[in-house]
Amino acid sequence: MDYLNVSTASATGNPRNKTALKPGRSLMDWIKLTNSSKDLSGNGNRLRDISSEELAQHKNKNDAWLAIRGMVYNVSSYFEFHPGGEEELMRGVGIDATDMFDQVHKWVNYESMLKKCLVGRLKTDSMLPPVKRPQGKPAVGKDLSMPPPPFSSLSASSAGMVTTDWMQNSTTVTIVLYTRQKGLDARRISTSIDGNFFHTRVYSDDWLRCYDYQIRLAEDVHPFCKPTVSLTTGKVELVLHKKQIALHWQKLGDTEEVCQGFKPLGQAPPFFRRSVLTRKSRVNHNVFLCTLTFPTGQNFHVPVGWHVQLKLCLEDGTEVIRSYTPVTSTLSSCETTDCPSISESPTALHFLIKIYANGPFTSALDRLSEGSSSIEVSNPIGNFVGSQLEGKNLIAIAAGTGITPLVRVAIDVLRSNRRVSLLFFNRTQDDIIWKEEFRELELKYPDTFKSWHVLSEPDDEWPGLRGRISKSVLAATILSEDYHDVGSNFACVCGPSDFTLETLRLLDSVGYTQETVHAFSG
């Protein structure tokens, strides 16, 4: 499942100082407007590069542009929908408003909220051509005892840059990245060793930007790399183990380009790693649990609520890519290390995938046998921030395979001994994913887990709830007296777009706000 936070959070303002909106200017009204044919960007959706000087010229209410993480948006149409008020939004107009935005809700998916308002990309120094590695005499790896370059020698303008170094001894080669990103930890470093090809991606402390480095190494190394990170300086050390001990490398390897610094995650080039389909078991009549296992040399972490892209090459040579959110291999993973939410480097990922007869990706997947190495997996993508759930109980509302992004979120909440209330919509009994597993989870955690199943096309023997998402269904379940406590709840929603929009409308009507709801797109 892909992700989408449809919060109405302010681009720059304080969400605790909200302004009453006029009738017809609610969250749902804004979503309807962005789904209409109206040109909200003012440029016919023809994207182009915008200079800081040009951005500064658009600083009036009727001609209001602002920039967030390198992208420029025309927010002229958003003023009446902005819950923080016009004055707050005007603070970010005509400038790069990234810092103001991050002070409020840096996890909010503004890219979805303002996608129809996108004018283009903000031209900055970071958009200069990549630095080419000199073609002269290759550098020789330094001895490990040599000190790193001092930070004091760096100019203030290079604060966002990443510099690299390397060193060696008789058994190892160490690549050093000076990221200057305080607060990094090993989970934010992904690495891939495939033969003599080495790739690493470093995510910023907020996961919203990344730096990529890749090189064809001069000599072979063992497929193992454990990153070491300094939380205070952002220094990353990547130790590679030589296959030929005592061989002195004359150079690290060949790189066509060296990236200058961090860039917004959405602008980063895709990177895929090989996998093997080691398990494909049927969950119901059209959903399979697929396990993809990674060869030694792959190190990465998928944050809770994030997804990856799966790439599959069809018989005619075309490539098909689809987004899926990892789940656990079983709901009993609440008590094991199988759940990737606590694994910094999973050796395998598990996916619940619905097979569509006419779907090019899933129909090809259906034909694959266990042992196939046809599927490649991307680095993680997303914007969900788990800290939103700290101290909160979870209200999970899903339809069909919309359950997938909610599985790991729910398990994390249960592990924290907080309550999970699941409202799960399906068409028939046969469509319910993990029906028995959810029932067993209720028996195991009677005080902290409760689920309701609602069918839109039940048979006569169905004893449970019937119908579609509605206020009456919510009133009988998550809005009942035992569960309706907006102040202590956080709601996550996932399903088809119509289902999600109606659910958000109903939650909004009973007091849930942008701070207490996250919607994943189905």
From TrEMBL:
Molecular functions per Gene Ontology: cytochrome-b5 reductase activity, acting on NAD(P)H; heme binding; metal ion binding
A single GO cellular-component term on record: endoplasmic reticulum
Keywords on record: Heme, Iron, Metal-binding, Oxidoreductase
Highest taxon listed in the record's lineage: Eukaryota
Domain annotation Cytochrome b5 heme-binding: ranges: 47-123
Segments for region (Disordered): 128-147
Family from the record: Belongs to the flavoprotein pyridine nucleotide cytochrome reductase family.
PANTHER family: CYTOCHROME B5 REDUCTASE 4, CYTOCHROME B5 REDUCTASE 4 FAMILY MEMBER
Protein name in the entry: Cytochrome-b5 reductase
Taxonomic classification: Eukaryota, Metazoa, Ecdysozoa, Arthropoda, Crustacea
